[in-house]
Amino acid sequence: MNRLNKPPKLTEKFFSWYCHSSAMEDLHGDLEELFYSDLENMSARRARWRYRQRVVSLLFSYAVKKRRQKASYHHYSFTSYHPAMLKNYFLIATRNLAKHKLFTIINALGLAVGMSIGLLLIALLAFLWRYDTFHVNKDRIYRVISHTNDKRSTRPFATTPAPVAQALRDGFTGVEEVVRINSSLEGEANYKGKDIPLQGYYTEPNFLRVFTFPIVKGNIASVLAKPNSMIMTETAAAKMFGDEDPVGKVIEMQGHDFEITGVLKDHPKNSHMQFEVLASYQTLLQQESASGKTINSWFDPTDSYVYLLLPPQHDIPAIENYINKVSAPIYAQSKDFKAQFELQALHDIAPGPDMRYSIGPEWDYASLGVFIFLVILILLPACFNYANISISRALRRMKEIGLRKTMGGQRSQIFAQFVVEAMVITMIALVMSYYIFYVVRFEFVNMLVDSSAVDLTPDLTTVIYFVGFAIFVGFIAGIVPAIYFAKLTPVQALKTQPVSKGFTAINFRKVLIVSQFALSLGFIMSVVIVFNQYRQTLNHNFGFDQENILDVELQGTDPQIFRNEFAKLPAAQSISMSSGIMGTGGVESIWIKEKNFIDTLEVYQMFVDEKYITNLNLTLLAGNNFSDDAARNKKHIIINEEFLKTLKSTNAADALGQVVVLTGGEEFTVVGVLKNFHYTSLRDPIRSFFFRYDPSRFAYANIKMITTDAFSSISEMEASWKTFAGEKKFMAKFFDDEISDAYSSYFGMIKICGFLGLLAITISCLGLLGMVVFTVENRIKEIGVRKVMGASASSVIVLLSKDFMKLMLIAAIIAIPITYLFFEKVYLNLQYYHADIGVLDIAVSLFIMLSLGVVTILSQTVRAAKANPVDSLRHE
């Protein structure tokens, strides 16, 4: 072989003598590889000259490195984190970002969209971390919670039977204060003809000693000492009394008079107790004595809460053991109900474990965990987008990186440069994401919970969290390109073609695009499926009429007087009475006593009059409706088809005349059998159910209307209402609207999935846009040559687009079965009667995703295909 076709001997010897380390030997091998590569493209002399130039550069780099190591006392001036160096990194980053404005905007917007939901999470967590921290005794307040077993399941309850409080007072000395709370205080409050809805608790005088709710007017020691005494918050007092002094005034609520004895300062929103009024617990005890209904039952924890203030030195296990020891003999007498009790610290309530009958807004760990997972699911693709586009763009900066490496640039310096660039981008994105956060925060809160119980207004601490979050995201987004370019050797950086291994491999970019569009398609399918489920639910055949039926709340008025007055109105075709609203879950459960059955059985009941079945057009299979004889009706029940299984009957007629005995000993005779209908929500299957007759339980009047002007008819009804109901507000709603409201959670799910889907598809399209722009720029010479050779614009568009279209189709193949299985096997099974996922749902979702992807691709490929090839080739 000609000597010119070999690397120079002298230089090789010199290189081996000076650079004897194993790392330099590897570089020497790379240099030889570059030399033989150059021989294919240029003359031998020029290849040998380029070889010597590379060797000299590497030797210079090696010498500088050795000199730095020797002059250690000057090392601080070369560190990556010296202020002067950081300033230099910042200047380089801003210049580079300003030079490539389009990619800067794409990266910043993609990160801003992803970070916006992160800001929502941070603001929410910052709010929840401050829950109940305003109480002076917050570290010593505990709540007694129950774990009940009613033969069906074991469930944790935030409620506790009221007798637990008295048991602790009587027999345990290690508790400073025991306070009972009952959450049944709710309804219209009337004062001088003004009706205001109020909500609150019955509680004891020591409530204000345990909890820190400052009192503005009144004596803290006596405001709740007497029966029928009440205190209210400043906001409630202003709504009810205006500028009048509320102390000493009397209001009517729940059929009782209450004297206002004090005014509380409005409680913070970050309180797990949300109330407007507090009434004396003695009032509830008096009502119990007068009505005969007990609230001090070990077997009824409904609406009852027990809180404890413990001394600084307390023994929680001893308290729990005492309560369970006292209650054990009582529950041993029952086959159907058992309970165990434990103490829950105040700071563990919100956020805390999921419990039934929470006294305030529910912030359970599971829901927050899902939210955090969704934030990560949206944010990570945005970070990967940045990494992918940054690496692709930075490949054009290989000469800069190689030169810096040759001149002695350290790995830490290269790493710091790329991380700083990412942080500059995320700071720009933070401003944009804060605007998105500010716009959507109120609507987002309304999706989760009542906005009156949450405040996402950021304070200084939250803003600091936002900045820290942006720095963290910048580090996460920049670490991938930073690590990749920091580990390159000078020879690798000086190569004209980048290495094909590591994070820049084409497979990584493909996986990223596929995963992003799979996620986007999943959210789009979620919106389409849930919307279809919501629509199908509202159109479901409930087994009774809903149209043109107006449900009016009786609010304690006499049902017969109501019927007599409203029957005079021409719009009222027929009027019936009921204790609840069918199809919305407004029924109650009751247990049938053992008799002809193997064990006690749970059934459901509702109280109606003799007009109800006809009014809602329910179908009688056998027997008769209730008669006009009220006394006889009280001993009769009308059952549904499902109840026949309970009676061990196969024929509806065979059930007539059979006797059903409740656990309380009451006996009822079956006089009719109805075709099955959905008395409760569609989330539950149809179970054994019966109608009973008891006018004292009627809470609603059901008016079947016949009118062409509903507004005028309702105005007439309101005028008629005032003639016998006084100042009570006329409260009415159409039956079909109440059915819609019962399934409003679907609409909330649609909004949440829609919001997340919008974020995901935006990030995906921005990432795709960046990759398409980069691909078009890299292939601009190829496009020009193809155009010169006669290629049409359409063929060029297909050439540039087909690979991206394949990736979107792969994303669809992945996302469709996963989303389908999730909804079919998990989410939709939460509702017993649900619509199946159809081909149309999947087709619509796929069309939306492909349309957005195709528009993104064509926005760049069409322009490139139509460009003048002369301009492209001249540019090259």
Structural commentary:
This is ABC transporter permease. Residues 104-325, 518-677 form the MacB-like periplasmic core domain. The chain is built from 28 helices and 22 strands. With 876 residues, the protein is α+β, with helices and mostly antiparallel strands. The protein has four domains: 3-78, no CATH class; 138-348, no CATH class; 365-535 and 744-875, no CATH class; 549-738, no CATH class. The strands form three sheets. Strands 14, 15, 16, 17, 18, 19 and 20 form a seven-stranded mixed sheet that branches. A six-stranded mixed β-barrel has the order 3-4-9-6-8-7. A hairpin with a 5-residue loop joins strand 18 (659-661) and strand 19. Helix 4 crosses helix 13 (411-448), helix 5 runs antiparallel to helix 11 (365-394) and helix 26 (793-827) runs antiparallel to helix 27 (839-866). The longest helix is centred in the middle third of the chain and has 38 residues, at 411-448. The model is unreliable at 17-23, 71-79 and 496-505 (pLDDT under 50).
